[in-house]
Amino acid sequence: MISETAPATCDQQVASNPLRALCVARHSFLSEHIARYFATMGVITATWVGLDCAADAVGEAAPDVVICDYDVLANLTLERWEQDALLSKTPVVAVSLTRRADELHLFEIDGIAGFLYLPKLDQAAALRILNAAAARSRYRLGSRMGAPRPVERS
């Protein structure tokens, strides 16, 4: 089951184009807590438990970023990550209430766009990381084959 939280008023979040995040954790209490936490920052959040079928649940309103509990990601294989319809196409920001960045073993996976340690989180820094992660998926480099090469003549 997926639930959505409307954004709270926040000066740092652009109201005309709010960030959409899917908050994933190992149980509903934690995913709802994470969703409420980021909703107070102006992020439109939806919750999900585990990664199974999460891509099917988001439907047409695809999130800009997935905010996922570290413990859910820690046991995920690279093969599963690459084949997952949601994770392979959406930037993922790992979050934790108990582990700091120096205790993580995730960074062998290129799909992690950032990490947030929730007990020491600064709202402005969190929004910068989430927006940067979301922007990363919107901008793709075009093919070099299609662009004309400038010719310099002397």
Order of helices and strands: EEHEHEHHEEH
Helix content: 25-40%
Q: Please summarize the sheet with the most strands.
A: 6 strands, mixed
Mean pLDDT: 76
Number of strands: 6
Spatial sequence of strands, sheet with the most strands? 1-3-2-4-5-6
End-to-end CA span: 66 Å
SS-derived structural category: alpha/beta
Radius of gyration: 17 Å
Q: Which stretches are poorly predicted, pLDDT < 50 over at least 5 residues? A: 7-14, 139-145
Walkthrough of the structure:
- This protein has 154 residues and is of the alpha/beta class.
- Helices cover 29% and strands 20% of the residues.
- The protein is built from 5 helices and 6 strands, in the order E-E-H-E-H-E-H-H-E-E-H.
- The protein has a 6-stranded mixed sheet.
- It starts with a strand and ends in a 16-residue tail after the last helix.
- Residues 7-14 and 139-145 have low confidence and may be disordered.
